[in-house]
Amino acid sequence: MSFLDSNLLDSNFIENIHKKGSIPSEIFDYKFYLIWETLNFYVQKVAQRINNTLKTKKINEFSLSDKKRDLYKWIEKASINSVQNVTEEELAKKLLLYSPELKTVLNMIKVAEITLLDYFFENKLPQKTLTSPKNLSLWYKFFSNDNPIYNVNNKLLKWIMKKLEFPKELKVLELGGGVGSTTFSIQEILLDKTDRLEYIYSDIHPLFIRQVKRKNNFPHLKTIHLNFDKPFEPQGIPKNGVNVVIAVNALHNAYHLEKTLLEIYNSLSSGGYLIISEAVKIYKDQPIALEIIFKQLEIDIQVTEKRKSSGFLEYKTWCNLLQETNFSNLTVYPDLDSITSLYPRCNIVAIVARKA
Ligand SMILES: C[S@@+](CC[C@H](N)C(=O)[O-])C[C@H]1O[C@@H](n2cnc3c(N)ncnc32)[C@H](O)[C@@H]1O
């Protein structure tokens, strides 16, 4: 495959995807596809280099723990189809040309390469380094709406919030709110739609909570510490207590996703919405560039019969898990079933589900 052959450089092709997938082009604009494709090519090159190192040092897949083997296989898979006529450096340059803000993403990938090799060769747990105070400023920048690879999930959520009908008295719970890039981008929309709004931002990370508290100048916005791996009720969210639960790029981190979904279901009042905006796989084991970072943050998640590995989930798995938790009226934006045969790397979606 050649970088320049990518038919995504053709704007008719993009228009066609938008039409078929029922999404407005301002969310996934031309530049976004260009960045997304180039980043995937870039990470293929990085994965290829890591794969060569692992092979040269004679790492034997079968002697690895399950968690390491899962990462090993991801690296192997991600390095396949690496483009021939362009170097890693040229791809990095292209990315920075498309957006200088991508420096943060490239830096994060560099850190992720080091932590991954340290995990294999020195058994150092990657989460510790990735979330260390030294790297925290990278995360603030990464989770920002200035990051063109990150803000698209927030744009999608915003678009959905505009479309949905909500009760005039609305109570919203946001899970894994991070530095608040989702939180602050939807307050005006919600205020316009309601007579009385209560918005509960939550996260597990005290520094993120503190940052949002500092920025907050909305009287209706409350910040709480909530670990979504634990029962919600003792953490201040009663059963049937909220009308909407929002989670942007957060729930794939859940230690035991089925349990977390049940907690969410129980916290919603009847007719309530769960809105997830996430990166997803289109087909089984599809490697997604950003997993080079996020898979390492999740090596502790509990794999189950339904969730077979860490990293982003297949969108069909999300739909199955939601249905099994009793959620109904599932809608996926964009309509992936209609567009994946055309474009199998449309990995950014939002799923809206309702409690009957
Ligand atoms: C990718 S960030 C999403 C941030 C936010 N949605 C945004 O767009 O700015 C994922 C967030 O999930 C949080 N998180 C991870 N595990 C969690 C858990 N068990 N309970 C609550 N939050 C968690 C992390 O601290 C992080 O802020």
Can you describe what's shown?
With 356 residues, this protein is of the alpha/beta class. It folds into two domains: 3-142, no CATH class; 151-354, 3-Layer(aba) Sandwich (Rossmann fold), CATH 3.40.50. Helix content is 46%, strand content 15%. It contains 14 helices and seven strands. It has helices at 11-21, 30-56, 66-78, 88-98, 103-122, 126-130, 133-142, 151-163, 181-193, 206-215, 257-267, 291-297, 315-324, 336-339; strands spanning 169-175, 196-203, 221-225, 242-248, 268-279, 328-333, 348-354. A seven-stranded mixed beta sheet has the order 3-2-1-4-5-7-6, with helices on both faces. Helix 2 (30-56) packs across helix 3 and helix 8 (151-163) packs parallel to helix 9. It starts with 10 loop residues before the first helix and ends with a strand. Bound molecules: S-adenosylmethionine. Residues 143, 154, 176-179, 181-182, 203-205, 208, 226-229, 248-250, 253 line the site of S-adenosylmethionine.
Report the span from N to C terminus. Answer: 47 Å
Q: Please identify the top-level CATH class of the largest domain.
A: Alpha Beta
Name of the CATH architecture of the largest domain: 3-Layer(aba) Sandwich
Helix content: 40-55%
Under CATH, the homologous superfamily of the largest domain reads: Vaccinia Virus protein VP39
Largest sheet: 7 strands, mixed
Q: What is the β-strand count?
A: 7
- pLDDT < 50 stretches: none
- Describe the global form: globular
Quickly count the helices: 14
Q: What is the total number of structural domains?
A: 2
Order of helices and strands: HHHHHHHHEHEHEEHEHHEHE
**Percent in strands:** 5-15%
Computed over alpha carbons, the radius of gyration is 20 Å
Mean pLDDT: 92
CATH topology of the largest domain: Rossmann fold
Strands in their spatial order, largest beta sheet: 3-2-1-4-5-7-6
